[in-house]
Amino acid sequence: MPTPFRHTEPLPPKSATGTAAEVYAQLGLDFGIAEPSTFVVLSSAPELLAPTWALMRESLIAGAGDRTGKELVALGVSLANKCPFCVDAHTVLLHATGDHALAERLARGLPPQDEEHARVLEWGRRTRVPGAASTPYPFPRAHAPAYLGTALTFHFINRIASALLTENLLPAGAQRFRAVRSLAGRSLARTVRRPARPGVALSLLDHPDPGEAPAWAAGTPVGLAYAALLRAALSGAGLLDTDDQDLVEAVVQDWDGTHPPLNLAGFPDRRERPGARLALLAALAPYRITDADVAAWRRPEHTDHCLVHLVAYGAFLAVDRIESTFSAQNMQEAA
Q: Whole-angstrom Cα distance, residue 199 to residue 220?
């Protein structure tokens, strides 16, 4: 059977022990899929696995607000980031919520008929452009931590999926058939519709104090999960020298949300600065990462653990750029 993984060969989940095994157990219970490839691919760097799951669980699954609305945010983010794997996944999950007609309209490229759904989907799309998804939000203010956390979760997961997975959610692209999408969604319906207790995933984090939670999280578990993932992902900066770090961080800081041109003008040459090129592609256009880009950077000491960390570092720089505008909006509202 073809593997869904590109550039890495993660260990089978059945061999997982410790925290990784606990993450898979929670995934099976609360997500309904025990071994989703978006998480299996992170297992090559286990310290990223738990905080990624924690952020998704505490926002999308256990956070306040309507699951259909949060799935629409995740779908809007995935469309904006050109991540077909995640677009298909959230279409299936909309079937799981029971919104079958909505899921199929979106699968055909049609807008939602419900105006509220349309506003939420568009808000998710706009989050790719830093500062564009401004208030007032198309959801209750009390639900903002979960909706913002969901958007940030999938800005990260989209980039991991685009860089390190194939486009096929199911073998041979079976998710492209309506009957398969519907059946897959129905198989997850009971789990998706079951309430989840907030905070459970925080026990998996390997650091009792992951750092300062952002103000927009309003004291919810989403904030601690975000701080933990930030700490874990940005540690990948150590795989680059100082000059490459400075270059990558400066480019992402100036990023306006656009997709790079086809010729990747302005990106470092893979022969001269392969690490900086990989990190920047992970941030701005992970779907453009090629075998040649990875091969140019790989050395005998560069394990799958290193590659996943470097991709996660670049991916999270983009997430952090978007998050900074959420924080700025929160400060303006508080002033």
A: 8
